[in-house]
Amino acid sequence: MQVSPADSVIGFIGLGVMGKSMAGHILSAGYRLNVFNRTRSKADELVERGAVWHDSVGELARNSDVVITIVGYPKDVEELYLAADGIVAGCRSGSFLIDMTTSRPSLARRIHEAAKRRSAHSLDAPVSGGDIGARDGRLSIMVGGEEEDLQAVLPVLRTMGSNITLQGGPGAGQHTKLCNQIAIASTMIGLCEALSYAQKAGLSLDLVLQAMGAGAAQSSALNNLGPRILKGDFAPGFYVRHFIKDMNIAIEEASDMGLDPRGLKLAKQLYEELAREPGGEELGTQGLFKLFARELSRS
Amino acid sequence: MQVSPADSVIGFIGLGVMGKSMAGHILSAGYRLNVFNRTRSKADELVERGAVWHDSVGELARNSDVVITIVGYPKDVEELYLAADGIVAGCRSGSFLIDMTTSRPSLARRIHEAAKRRSAHSLDAPVSGGDIGARDGRLSIMVGGEEEDLQAVLPVLRTMGSNITLQGGPGAGQHTKLCNQIAIASTMIGLCEALSYAQKAGLSLDLVLQAMGAGAAQSSALNNLGPRILKGDFAPGFYVRHFIKDMNIAIEEASDMGLDPRGLKLAKQLYEELAREPGGEELGTQGLFKLFARELSRS
User: Looking at residue B36, what is its pLDDT?
Assistant: First the structure.
């Protein structure tokens, strides 16, 4: 059996840059939508479009067949799901709980166990594709959990993502997302170093992006964030502070497995330098270029 | 005026993985082709198809309207062009000399000056896109030199590349290619670290590549080299030893400009570790994964 707008109410928690677009797609697909967010005003637009506001996480869970969350940090996820008045305590028997936050694989497994004891189904389903992917409903969704649970909620995930892959059991979605962040971390260093070199060498950054984008240096980061860097647009599609959180989790997990990801550690160090600048944490990840540009102006 | 198969003879020096494909496209477009290569046997296939072998660089230059080179190292480029019996000494007045090797910007400027004194036109025009880009005639060609010289030789460059950009005066093509290599260097670290994490976490590398390729971690490296890594195919599209050469030039140039490219330096260090393994230098750049896999098996 699959969820459908006719018989399933969706609850959505976390209306940040990504979540707001994602919840909007669910509403557009005809689902009844319950919403909750720490900052209530971020729900206004969705409520105007017909979403129903709930004053607590527990209340939202009690009134939803599927609960979707995308928030900031693992501690937020843990509290949302596992607190006494949280999602697991409040959820309906047989309901589906989908955490789309990038979080710890071990936490995903704990939530899965807790949900099972309440006869609910849990999936970890973090996403990649940034603000543009979320806006266009073309996210890559990396799922950990049971195959039949994924099949059941696929219609609602399809409103948000164009590439949905079951990566394995509980936690495997999170592990895959960490792989994704590891790949991006060093790619961002390369992109920003390349553009700072180009600037220092007196090249046209536009022409350099064009040439790199047509060859082996092409990347999603180059295509999507390169032009923002050139325009001086450092607004967050994805926040520096959230990226640092992801890198911290990945480094811990990698270390636990006996790996020494030197590129990832360097990226974390550089992003932490950026985060120590005034306003640095609130930039988008392309803000790394500012760190390199600052070094440029010093030399 | 532009070169055309009717009135221009092309000379091609350097028939490695890339050069052989590129020279083949020129021949296919109907140009008469002179060839020279350090290892003569690599010219056999082209000679069978109608190319004319020359026993020396000088002789090839004396018999060509356009001379194209793509060899290994800056010292090879310097000798080819500036030796007493080299290309500049032998070239026809009004001829075009195009170096497509990734080499030093300062050497490109010296060749440009030397060519000018012989009334010849020189362009630096390194390429990106790897063995597949060369095979398909879809390279990104990054050109430094005079606009009118590029216009003159555009028909022959178009047989090899689909994206041809004039980046500035002599040396600007090389600077742009170094930007390209800087971006790739850290991207390769990210890709190999991500796949080694995936392997250690017990994920399906196929599914992880699929998920990453659909999101913000997508890159040309992931698309083209990821599948080769999964197949255990470490054959060179682009040699580790040539990549180290490029990174060395980029680090020197960046340092001269007062930059400290930490990602690039880490990449060079990792690739040098790989090069110290038996056969490591002769792998393709995706061989970096073997270094990470080796660390995996140790831990």
Answer: 98
Nearest C-alpha neighbor of B239 from the set B130, B117, B98? B130
**Is A196 an 8 Å CB contact of chain B?**
yes
Identify the closest residue of chain A to B251 by CA–CA distance.
A197
pLDDT for the residue numbered A190: 98
Q: Regarding beta strands B127-128 and B139-144, do their DSSP bridges make them parallel or antiparallel, or are they unpaired?
A: antiparallel
Question: What positions of A carry a catalytic annotation?
Answer: 177
Q: Are the CB atoms for B20 and B42 separated by under 8 Å? A: yes
| Termini Cα distance of chain A | 63
CATH 1.10.1040.10 maps onto chain B at 175-298
Phi, psi of A38 (to 5 degrees): -60, -50
pLDDT value of residue A255: 96
Q: What top-level class would CATH report for the domain B9-169?
A: alpha beta
Q: What is the pLDDT of residue A17?
A: 86
Over the stretch A94-141, which tens digit does the pLDDT of each residue have?
Answer: 999 999 999 999 999 999 999 999 999 999 999 998 888 999 999 999
The answer to whether A185 contacts B190, with C-beta atoms less than 8 Å apart, is: yes
Contacts of B204 in chain A (CB under 8 A): 167-168
pLDDT at A295 over 80: no
Q: Do B215 and A140 touch (CB under 8 A)?
A: yes
User: A236 Cβ partners below 8 Å, 6+ apart?
Assistant: A17, A131, A282, A283, A284
pTM: predicted TM-score of the whole model, two decimal places: 0.94
CB A254 within 8 A of CB B197: yes
**What pLDDT does B294 receive?**
79
Q: How far apart are CA B129 and CA A258, in angstroms?
A: 35
Contacts of B150 (CB under 8 A, 6+ apart): B123, B143, B157, B164, B166
Higher pLDDT residue, A17 or B38?
A: B38
In tens, the pLDDT along A204-231 reads 999 999 999 999 999 999 999 999 999 9
Give me the percent of chain B exceeding a pLDDT of 90. Answer: 95
- Give the C-alpha separation, A232 to A289, whole Å: 10
| Chain B residues 65-124 with CB within 8 Å of chain A | 105
Q: Which fold has domain B175-298?
A: N-(1-d-carboxylethyl)-l-norvaline Dehydrogenase; domain 2 (1.10.1040)
Range list for CATH 3.40.50.720 in chain B: 9-169
Check residue B114 and report its DSSP letter: H
DSSP state of B92: P
